[in-house]
Protein backbone atom coordinates (compact mmCIF):
# COMPACT_ATOMS: atom_id res chain seq x y z
CA UNK A 1 0.00 0.00 0.00
CA UNK A 2 2.87 2.36 0.87
CA UNK A 3 4.56 1.63 -2.45
CA UNK A 4 1.30 2.43 -4.27
CA UNK A 5 1.03 5.81 -2.49
CA UNK A 6 4.57 6.70 -3.55
CA UNK A 7 3.75 5.82 -7.13
CA UNK A 8 0.51 7.88 -6.92
CA UNK A 9 2.35 10.93 -5.56
CA UNK A 10 5.12 10.61 -8.14
CA UNK A 11 2.62 10.34 -10.98
CA UNK A 12 0.20 13.12 -10.15
CA UNK A 13 2.35 15.63 -8.27
CA UNK A 14 5.82 15.22 -9.72
CA UNK A 15 5.01 14.82 -13.40
CA UNK A 16 4.73 18.60 -13.85
CA UNK A 17 8.08 19.08 -12.14
CA UNK A 18 9.55 16.37 -14.32
CA UNK A 19 8.18 18.14 -17.35
CA UNK A 20 9.80 21.40 -16.23
CA UNK A 21 13.10 19.56 -15.73
CA UNK A 22 12.82 18.08 -19.19
CA UNK A 23 12.13 21.51 -20.73
CA UNK A 24 15.14 23.13 -19.02
CA UNK A 25 17.28 20.17 -19.97
CA UNK A 26 16.02 20.45 -23.55
CA UNK A 27 17.02 24.12 -23.65
CA UNK A 28 20.47 23.23 -22.35
CA UNK A 29 20.81 20.60 -25.07
CA UNK A 30 19.91 23.14 -27.73
CA UNK A 31 22.80 25.27 -26.53
CA UNK A 32 25.17 22.48 -27.40
CA UNK A 33 23.48 21.80 -30.75
CA UNK A 34 21.14 18.96 -29.85
CA UNK A 35 23.76 16.56 -28.50
CA UNK A 36 23.02 13.83 -25.97
CA UNK A 37 23.75 14.82 -22.36
CA UNK A 38 27.38 14.29 -21.27
CA UNK A 39 28.36 12.89 -24.70
CA UNK A 40 31.09 14.49 -26.84
CA UNK A 41 30.00 15.94 -30.16
CA UNK A 42 31.15 13.99 -33.21
CA UNK A 43 30.35 15.31 -36.65
CA UNK A 44 31.69 15.18 -40.17
CA UNK A 45 34.43 17.76 -40.67
CA UNK A 46 32.54 19.45 -43.53
CA UNK A 47 29.62 20.07 -41.17
CA UNK A 48 31.95 21.52 -38.52
CA UNK A 49 33.63 23.82 -41.03
CA UNK A 50 30.28 25.23 -42.13
CA UNK A 51 29.45 26.51 -38.64
CA UNK A 52 29.54 30.35 -38.61
CA UNK A 53 32.49 31.88 -36.78
CA UNK A 54 34.12 28.55 -35.97
CA UNK A 55 37.91 28.37 -35.92
CA UNK A 56 38.82 25.55 -38.30
CA UNK A 57 42.07 23.65 -38.40
CA UNK A 58 42.76 24.81 -41.96
CA UNK A 59 42.39 28.45 -40.88
CA UNK A 60 44.86 27.87 -38.05
CA UNK A 61 47.40 26.23 -40.36
CA UNK A 62 47.12 29.11 -42.85
CA UNK A 63 47.90 31.46 -40.00
CA UNK A 64 50.92 29.35 -39.06
CA UNK A 65 52.28 29.39 -42.59
CA UNK A 66 51.90 33.15 -43.05
CA UNK A 67 52.56 34.62 -39.60
CA UNK A 68 54.28 32.13 -37.28
CA UNK A 69 57.64 33.72 -36.29
CA UNK A 70 59.71 30.53 -36.44
CA UNK A 71 58.49 29.79 -39.97
CA UNK A 72 59.27 33.35 -41.04
CA UNK A 73 62.70 33.09 -39.39
CA UNK A 74 63.41 29.82 -41.20
CA UNK A 75 62.60 31.48 -44.51
CA UNK A 76 65.46 33.90 -43.82
CA UNK A 77 67.81 30.91 -43.89
CA UNK A 78 66.83 30.41 -47.53
CA UNK A 79 67.37 34.11 -48.21
CA UNK A 80 70.83 33.85 -46.66
CA UNK A 81 71.63 30.81 -48.81
CA UNK A 82 70.49 32.68 -51.93
CA UNK A 83 72.85 35.56 -51.15
CA UNK A 84 75.69 33.12 -50.54
CA UNK A 85 74.99 31.65 -53.97
CA UNK A 86 75.20 35.15 -55.41
CA UNK A 87 78.53 35.62 -53.63
CA UNK A 88 79.84 32.36 -55.10
CA UNK A 89 78.87 33.55 -58.59
CA UNK A 90 81.01 36.61 -57.95
CA UNK A 91 84.12 34.50 -58.63
CA UNK A 92 83.27 34.88 -62.33
CA UNK A 93 82.75 38.64 -62.20
CA UNK A 94 84.51 40.82 -64.74
CA UNK A 95 87.64 42.39 -63.23
CA UNK A 96 89.58 45.48 -64.19
CA UNK A 97 93.30 45.78 -63.41
CA UNK A 98 95.69 48.63 -64.11
CA UNK A 99 99.27 49.52 -63.33
CA UNK A 100 101.41 52.58 -64.04
CA UNK A 101 105.22 52.71 -63.87
CA UNK A 102 107.53 55.68 -64.24
CA UNK A 103 111.35 56.04 -64.24
CA UNK A 104 112.09 59.78 -64.20
CA UNK A 105 115.80 59.40 -63.37
CA UNK A 106 118.56 57.17 -64.65
CA UNK A 107 119.97 56.29 -68.02
CA UNK A 108 116.70 54.71 -69.18
CA UNK A 109 113.87 57.13 -68.50
CA UNK A 110 110.39 55.86 -69.43
CA UNK A 111 106.71 55.69 -68.50
CA UNK A 112 104.45 52.66 -68.87
CA UNK A 113 100.68 52.46 -68.37
CA UNK A 114 98.89 49.09 -68.49
CA UNK A 115 95.14 48.37 -68.10
CA UNK A 116 93.38 45.03 -68.55
CA UNK A 117 89.96 43.39 -68.21
CA UNK A 118 89.81 39.74 -67.04
CA UNK A 119 86.77 37.50 -67.24
CA UNK A 120 86.92 34.04 -65.64
CA UNK A 121 84.21 31.67 -66.95
CA UNK A 122 82.82 28.29 -65.91
CA UNK A 123 83.37 27.02 -69.49
CA UNK A 124 86.02 24.42 -68.78
CA UNK A 125 87.80 26.87 -66.49
CA UNK A 126 88.70 29.12 -69.43
CA UNK A 127 89.45 32.79 -68.70
CA UNK A 128 89.56 35.63 -71.19
CA UNK A 129 91.47 38.88 -71.03
CA UNK A 130 91.76 42.09 -73.05
CA UNK A 131 93.85 45.16 -72.37
CA UNK A 132 95.63 48.27 -73.51
CA UNK A 133 99.25 49.28 -72.85
CA UNK A 134 101.32 52.33 -73.68
CA UNK A 135 105.08 52.58 -73.13
CA UNK A 136 107.01 55.83 -73.80
CA UNK A 137 110.72 56.59 -73.34
CA UNK A 138 113.98 54.69 -73.51
CA UNK A 139 113.95 50.98 -72.70
CA UNK A 140 116.87 48.59 -72.34
CA UNK A 141 117.19 45.88 -74.96
CA UNK A 142 116.12 43.20 -72.48
CA UNK A 143 112.90 45.10 -71.69
CA UNK A 144 111.70 46.15 -75.14
CA UNK A 145 108.40 44.28 -74.66
CA UNK A 146 107.23 47.18 -72.50
CA UNK A 147 107.74 49.64 -75.35
CA UNK A 148 104.85 50.40 -77.71
CA UNK A 149 104.23 52.56 -80.72
CA UNK A 150 102.90 56.06 -80.16
CA UNK A 151 99.20 55.11 -79.92
CA UNK A 152 99.81 52.11 -77.69
CA UNK A 153 99.06 48.42 -77.95
CA UNK A 154 95.77 46.49 -77.76
CA UNK A 155 95.89 42.85 -76.76
CA UNK A 156 93.42 40.01 -76.06
CA UNK A 157 93.65 36.34 -75.32
CA UNK A 158 92.52 33.33 -73.34
CA UNK A 159 93.89 30.87 -70.78
CA UNK A 160 92.57 27.33 -71.32
CA UNK A 161 93.18 24.59 -68.71
CA UNK A 162 93.83 21.26 -70.44
CA UNK A 163 94.08 18.91 -67.42
CA UNK A 164 93.83 20.42 -63.93
CA UNK A 165 90.85 22.77 -63.41
CA UNK A 166 89.23 21.65 -66.66
CA UNK A 167 86.40 19.58 -65.13
CA UNK A 168 86.20 21.44 -61.83
CA UNK A 169 87.96 24.17 -59.93
CA UNK A 170 87.43 26.00 -56.64
CA UNK A 171 85.13 28.64 -58.14
CA UNK A 172 82.82 26.13 -59.79
CA UNK A 173 82.93 23.95 -56.68
CA UNK A 174 81.83 26.90 -54.53
CA UNK A 175 78.86 27.51 -56.83
CA UNK A 176 77.82 23.86 -56.69
CA UNK A 177 78.07 23.90 -52.90
CA UNK A 178 76.04 27.11 -52.76
CA UNK A 179 73.33 25.47 -54.89
CA UNK A 180 73.25 22.51 -52.50
CA UNK A 181 73.10 24.89 -49.52
CA UNK A 182 69.99 26.45 -51.05
CA UNK A 183 68.38 23.02 -51.26
CA UNK A 184 69.41 22.25 -47.69
CA UNK A 185 67.88 25.54 -46.55
CA UNK A 186 64.61 24.61 -48.28
CA UNK A 187 64.69 21.22 -46.56
CA UNK A 188 65.27 22.79 -43.16
CA UNK A 189 62.19 24.95 -43.74
CA UNK A 190 60.20 21.84 -44.66
CA UNK A 191 61.40 20.01 -41.55
CA UNK A 192 60.38 22.92 -39.36
CA UNK A 193 57.05 23.20 -41.15
CA UNK A 194 56.24 19.55 -40.47
CA UNK A 195 56.98 19.93 -36.75
CA UNK A 196 55.14 23.24 -36.43
CA UNK A 197 52.05 21.85 -38.16
CA UNK A 198 52.15 18.78 -35.92
CA UNK A 199 52.36 20.91 -32.76
CA UNK A 200 49.73 23.42 -33.92
CA UNK A 201 47.34 20.60 -34.85
CA UNK A 202 47.75 18.87 -31.49
CA UNK A 203 47.19 22.09 -29.61
CA UNK A 204 44.09 22.76 -31.71
CA UNK A 205 42.56 19.42 -30.80
CA UNK A 206 43.52 19.92 -27.16
CA UNK A 207 41.58 23.18 -27.24
CA UNK A 208 38.59 21.45 -28.84
CA UNK A 209 38.78 18.65 -26.24
CA UNK A 210 38.98 21.15 -23.38
CA UNK A 211 35.90 22.88 -24.78
CA UNK A 212 34.01 19.60 -24.92
CA UNK A 213 34.98 18.74 -21.34
CA UNK A 214 33.84 22.18 -20.23
CA UNK A 215 30.41 21.56 -21.81
CA UNK A 216 30.12 18.20 -20.05
CA UNK A 217 30.74 19.74 -16.61
CA UNK A 218 28.54 22.73 -17.42
CA UNK A 219 25.68 20.43 -18.39
CA UNK A 220 26.25 18.29 -15.32
CA UNK A 221 26.00 21.35 -13.04
CA UNK A 222 22.87 22.57 -14.81
CA UNK A 223 21.13 19.25 -14.13
CA UNK A 224 21.88 19.49 -10.41
CA UNK A 225 20.64 23.08 -10.22
CA UNK A 226 17.39 22.27 -12.04
CA UNK A 227 16.82 19.34 -9.68
CA UNK A 228 17.24 21.55 -6.61
CA UNK A 229 13.66 22.86 -6.75
CA UNK A 230 12.27 19.41 -7.58
CA UNK A 231 13.93 17.94 -4.51
CA UNK A 232 12.60 20.79 -2.33
CA UNK A 233 9.07 20.19 -3.64
CA UNK A 234 9.26 16.47 -2.90
CA UNK A 235 10.63 17.13 0.57
CA UNK A 236 7.71 19.51 1.20
CA UNK A 237 5.32 16.74 0.10
CA UNK A 238 7.01 14.34 2.48
CA UNK A 239 8.15 12.10 -0.35
CA UNK A 240 11.87 12.62 0.33
CA UNK A 241 13.91 13.02 3.51
CA UNK A 242 15.67 16.36 4.10
CA UNK A 243 19.07 14.72 3.65
CA UNK A 244 18.39 14.56 -0.11
CA UNK A 245 18.49 18.37 -0.29
CA UNK A 246 21.85 18.35 1.45
CA UNK A 247 23.08 15.67 -0.96
CA UNK A 248 22.02 17.77 -3.96
CA UNK A 249 23.74 20.85 -2.50
CA UNK A 250 26.90 18.79 -2.10
CA UNK A 251 26.65 17.65 -5.72
CA UNK A 252 26.23 21.26 -6.88
CA UNK A 253 29.37 22.35 -5.03
CA UNK A 254 31.32 19.39 -6.39
CA UNK A 255 30.23 20.12 -9.94
CA UNK A 256 30.95 23.84 -9.60
CA UNK A 257 34.48 22.91 -8.58
CA UNK A 258 34.81 20.60 -11.58
CA UNK A 259 33.46 23.33 -13.87
CA UNK A 260 35.99 25.88 -12.55
CA UNK A 261 38.81 23.40 -13.17
CA UNK A 262 37.51 22.66 -16.68
CA UNK A 263 37.22 26.40 -17.39
CA UNK A 264 40.85 26.90 -16.39
CA UNK A 265 41.95 24.04 -18.67
CA UNK A 266 39.98 25.59 -21.52
CA UNK A 267 41.63 28.97 -20.91
CA UNK A 268 45.07 27.36 -20.79
CA UNK A 269 44.40 25.48 -24.04
CA UNK A 270 43.27 28.72 -25.70
CA UNK A 271 46.41 30.54 -24.50
CA UNK A 272 48.61 27.73 -25.81
CA UNK A 273 46.78 27.85 -29.14
CA UNK A 274 47.25 31.62 -29.44
CA UNK A 275 50.97 31.00 -29.93
CA UNK A 276 50.07 29.66 -33.39
CA UNK A 277 46.95 31.69 -34.21
CA UNK A 278 48.05 35.15 -35.37
CA UNK A 279 47.00 38.13 -37.41
CA UNK A 280 48.86 38.81 -40.69
CA UNK A 281 51.20 41.18 -38.83
CA UNK A 282 52.09 38.46 -36.31
CA UNK A 283 49.95 39.56 -33.33
CA UNK A 284 48.71 36.61 -31.27
CA UNK A 285 44.95 35.94 -31.21
CA UNK A 286 43.32 34.43 -28.12
CA UNK A 287 40.36 32.36 -29.40
CA UNK A 288 37.21 32.67 -27.31
CA UNK A 289 34.60 30.01 -26.63
CA UNK A 290 32.36 31.29 -29.42
CA UNK A 291 34.97 30.06 -31.94
CA UNK A 292 35.00 26.50 -30.61
CA UNK A 293 33.98 23.88 -33.18
CA UNK A 294 30.73 22.09 -32.52
CA UNK A 295 32.68 18.89 -31.88
CA UNK A 296 35.30 16.50 -33.11
CA UNK A 297 35.30 15.22 -36.70
CA UNK A 298 34.40 11.59 -37.14
CA UNK A 299 37.32 9.25 -36.39
CA UNK A 300 39.29 8.00 -39.38
CA UNK A 301 39.22 4.26 -39.79
CA UNK A 302 42.68 2.64 -39.95
CA UNK A 303 41.37 0.51 -42.82
CA UNK A 304 41.95 3.58 -45.02
CA UNK A 305 45.66 3.65 -44.07
CA UNK A 306 48.24 1.30 -45.62
CA UNK A 307 51.59 0.78 -43.92
CA UNK A 308 53.36 -0.08 -47.19
CA UNK A 309 52.00 2.98 -48.99
CA UNK A 310 52.70 5.20 -45.98
CA UNK A 311 56.34 4.08 -45.84
CA UNK A 312 56.74 4.70 -49.56
CA UNK A 313 55.38 8.25 -49.21
CA UNK A 314 57.50 8.92 -46.11
CA UNK A 315 60.73 7.91 -47.87
CA UNK A 316 59.73 10.04 -50.84
CA UNK A 317 58.73 13.24 -49.00
CA UNK A 318 60.51 13.25 -45.64
CA UNK A 319 63.20 15.97 -45.77
CA UNK A 320 65.74 13.88 -43.83
CA UNK A 321 66.32 11.49 -46.74
CA UNK A 322 66.97 14.26 -49.27
CA UNK A 323 69.00 16.16 -46.69
CA UNK A 324 71.55 13.36 -46.33
CA UNK A 325 71.70 12.89 -50.10
CA UNK A 326 72.48 16.59 -50.59
CA UNK A 327 75.09 16.53 -47.82
CA UNK A 328 76.73 13.54 -49.50
CA UNK A 329 76.77 15.36 -52.85
CA UNK A 330 78.40 18.34 -51.16
CA UNK A 331 81.18 16.18 -49.74
CA UNK A 332 81.58 14.50 -53.16
CA UNK A 333 82.49 17.91 -54.54
CA UNK A 334 85.38 18.10 -52.05
CA UNK A 335 86.51 14.68 -53.25
CA UNK A 336 86.44 15.88 -56.87
CA UNK A 337 88.55 18.89 -55.86
CA UNK A 338 91.05 16.53 -54.27
CA UNK A 339 91.35 14.48 -57.46
CA UNK A 340 91.65 17.72 -59.42
CA UNK A 341 94.53 18.95 -57.25
CA UNK A 342 96.44 15.72 -57.86
CA UNK A 343 96.42 16.26 -61.62
CA UNK A 344 99.24 18.12 -63.45
CA UNK A 345 98.60 21.70 -64.47
CA UNK A 346 98.72 22.06 -68.25
CA UNK A 347 97.40 25.43 -69.41
CA UNK A 348 97.31 26.78 -72.94
CA UNK A 349 97.68 30.55 -73.19
CA UNK A 350 96.75 32.16 -76.51
CA UNK A 351 97.17 35.91 -77.02
CA UNK A 352 97.13 38.38 -79.90
CA UNK A 353 98.29 41.99 -79.90
CA UNK A 354 98.49 44.98 -82.23
CA UNK A 355 100.42 48.26 -81.90
CA UNK A 356 99.05 51.47 -83.42
CA UNK A 357 100.59 54.75 -84.54
CA UNK A 358 104.09 55.83 -85.53
CA UNK A 359 106.96 53.87 -84.12
CA UNK A 360 108.99 50.79 -84.72
CA UNK A 361 108.09 48.92 -87.90
CA UNK A 362 108.74 45.67 -86.04
CA UNK A 363 105.69 46.36 -83.87
CA UNK A 364 103.42 47.52 -86.67
CA UNK A 365 102.06 44.09 -87.60
CA UNK A 366 99.65 42.02 -85.45
CA UNK A 367 101.19 39.27 -83.36
CA UNK A 368 99.83 35.89 -82.25
CA UNK A 369 101.45 34.08 -79.35
CA UNK A 370 100.73 30.65 -77.84
CA UNK A 371 102.29 29.35 -74.63
CA UNK A 372 102.03 26.08 -72.74
CA UNK A 373 102.34 26.15 -68.95
CA UNK A 374 103.26 22.89 -67.21
CA UNK A 375 103.22 22.36 -63.45
CA UNK A 376 103.73 18.80 -62.12
CA UNK A 377 103.04 18.00 -58.44
CA UNK A 378 105.92 15.93 -57.09
CA UNK A 379 104.25 15.07 -53.78
CA UNK A 380 100.48 14.74 -53.45
CA UNK A 381 99.90 14.45 -49.71
CA UNK A 382 97.40 17.29 -49.58
CA UNK A 383 95.20 15.97 -52.43
CA UNK A 384 95.36 12.43 -51.04
CA UNK A 385 94.41 13.70 -47.59
CA UNK A 386 91.47 15.67 -48.99
CA UNK A 387 90.27 12.65 -50.97
CA UNK A 388 90.55 10.31 -47.98
CA UNK A 389 88.74 12.73 -45.65
CA UNK A 390 85.94 13.21 -48.17
CA UNK A 391 85.47 9.45 -48.68
CA UNK A 392 85.40 8.87 -44.92
CA UNK A 393 82.77 11.61 -44.55
CA UNK A 394 80.70 10.10 -47.36
CA UNK A 395 80.81 6.70 -45.67
CA UNK A 396 79.67 8.33 -42.44
CA UNK A 397 76.76 10.04 -44.21
CA UNK A 398 75.76 6.75 -45.85
CA UNK A 399 75.42 5.16 -42.41
CA UNK A 400 73.50 8.16 -41.07
CA UNK A 401 71.18 8.01 -44.09
CA UNK A 402 70.45 4.35 -43.43
CA UNK A 403 69.71 5.12 -39.79
CA UNK A 404 67.45 8.01 -40.83
CA UNK A 405 65.49 5.64 -43.07
CA UNK A 406 65.20 3.12 -40.23
CA UNK A 407 64.04 5.88 -37.89
CA UNK A 408 61.43 7.05 -40.39
CA UNK A 409 60.21 3.48 -40.76
CA UNK A 410 59.79 3.05 -37.00
CA UNK A 411 58.07 6.44 -36.67
CA UNK A 412 55.55 5.59 -39.38
CA UNK A 413 54.86 2.16 -37.87
CA UNK A 414 54.50 3.60 -34.37
CA UNK A 415 52.24 6.41 -35.57
CA UNK A 416 50.02 3.99 -37.48
CA UNK A 417 49.85 1.71 -34.43
CA UNK A 418 48.84 4.73 -32.34
CA UNK A 419 46.08 5.60 -34.81
CA UNK A 420 44.72 2.04 -34.78
CA UNK A 421 44.78 1.80 -30.97
CA UNK A 422 43.17 5.21 -30.46
CA UNK A 423 40.46 4.34 -33.00
CA UNK A 424 39.61 1.18 -31.07
CA UNK A 425 39.60 3.12 -27.83
CA UNK A 426 37.13 5.63 -29.26
CA UNK A 427 34.77 2.75 -30.08
CA UNK A 428 35.09 1.26 -26.59
CA UNK A 429 34.55 4.56 -24.79
CA UNK A 430 31.57 5.35 -27.00
CA UNK A 431 29.93 2.09 -25.96
CA UNK A 432 30.81 2.85 -22.35
CA UNK A 433 29.10 6.25 -22.59
CA UNK A 434 25.95 4.68 -24.04
CA UNK A 435 25.73 2.15 -21.20
CA UNK A 436 26.52 4.75 -18.55
CA UNK A 437 23.81 7.07 -19.87
CA UNK A 438 21.34 4.20 -19.97
CA UNK A 439 22.06 3.37 -16.33
CA UNK A 440 21.83 7.06 -15.44
CA UNK A 441 18.38 7.32 -17.05
CA UNK A 442 17.13 4.19 -15.32
CA UNK A 443 18.46 5.36 -11.94
CA UNK A 444 16.77 8.72 -12.37
CA UNK A 445 13.47 6.97 -13.18
CA UNK A 446 13.85 4.86 -10.05
CA UNK A 447 14.43 8.00 -8.04
CA UNK A 448 11.23 9.59 -9.39
CA UNK A 449 9.36 6.43 -8.41
CA UNK A 450 10.88 6.48 -4.94
CA UNK A 451 12.95 3.30 -5.37
CA UNK A 452 16.32 5.09 -5.20
CA UNK A 453 17.95 8.05 -3.55
CA UNK A 454 19.82 11.08 -4.78
CA UNK A 455 23.21 9.68 -3.83
CA UNK A 456 22.87 6.86 -6.37
CA UNK A 457 21.53 9.29 -9.00
CA UNK A 458 24.55 11.56 -8.47
CA UNK A 459 26.87 8.59 -8.71
CA UNK A 460 25.29 7.52 -12.00
CA UNK A 461 25.46 11.05 -13.39
CA UNK A 462 29.07 11.41 -12.29
CA UNK A 463 29.90 8.06 -13.84
CA UNK A 464 28.28 9.15 -17.11
CA UNK A 465 30.26 12.38 -17.14
CA UNK A 466 33.50 10.51 -16.42
CA UNK A 467 32.75 8.13 -19.29
CA UNK A 468 32.05 11.12 -21.56
CA UNK A 469 35.37 12.69 -20.52
CA UNK A 470 37.14 9.42 -21.34
CA UNK A 471 35.53 9.42 -24.77
CA UNK A 472 36.63 13.03 -25.31
CA UNK A 473 40.18 12.13 -24.31
CA UNK A 474 40.05 9.12 -26.62
CA UNK A 475 38.96 11.37 -29.50
CA UNK A 476 41.69 13.85 -28.58
CA UNK A 477 44.28 11.06 -28.57
CA UNK A 478 42.95 9.80 -31.91
CA UNK A 479 43.25 13.15 -33.66
CA UNK A 480 46.61 13.80 -32.01
CA UNK A 481 47.82 10.42 -33.26
CA UNK A 482 46.62 11.39 -36.74
CA UNK A 483 48.74 14.55 -36.45
CA UNK A 484 51.73 12.37 -35.54
CA UNK A 485 51.00 10.05 -38.46
CA UNK A 486 50.71 12.94 -40.90
CA UNK A 487 54.02 14.34 -39.63
CA UNK A 488 55.69 10.93 -39.97
CA UNK A 489 54.55 10.67 -43.60
CA UNK A 490 55.14 14.38 -44.39
CA UNK A 491 51.49 14.86 -45.32
CA UNK A 492 51.89 18.67 -45.50
CA UNK A 493 54.60 18.32 -48.15
CA UNK A 494 52.50 15.83 -50.12
CA UNK A 495 49.67 18.39 -50.25
CA UNK A 496 52.11 20.96 -51.65
CA UNK A 497 53.11 18.62 -54.47
CA UNK A 498 49.55 17.67 -55.37
CA UNK A 499 48.02 19.59 -58.30
UniProtKB/TrEMBL annotation:
Coiled-coil intervals, chain numbering: 387-414
Main subcellular location: membrane
Keyword Mitochondrion: no
Compartment list: Cell outer membrane
Signal sequence range: 1-22
Keyword annotations: Cell outer membrane, Coiled coil, Membrane, Signal, Transmembrane, Transmembrane beta strand
GO CC terms of this entry: cell outer membrane; efflux pump complex
SUPFAM superfamilies tied to this protein: Outer membrane efflux proteins (OEP)
InterPro entries assigned to the protein according to its UniProt record, in alphabetical order: TolC-like (IPR051906)
GO MF, one annotated term: efflux transmembrane transporter activity
Protein name: TolC-like outermembrane protein
Organism of origin: Leptospira ryugenii
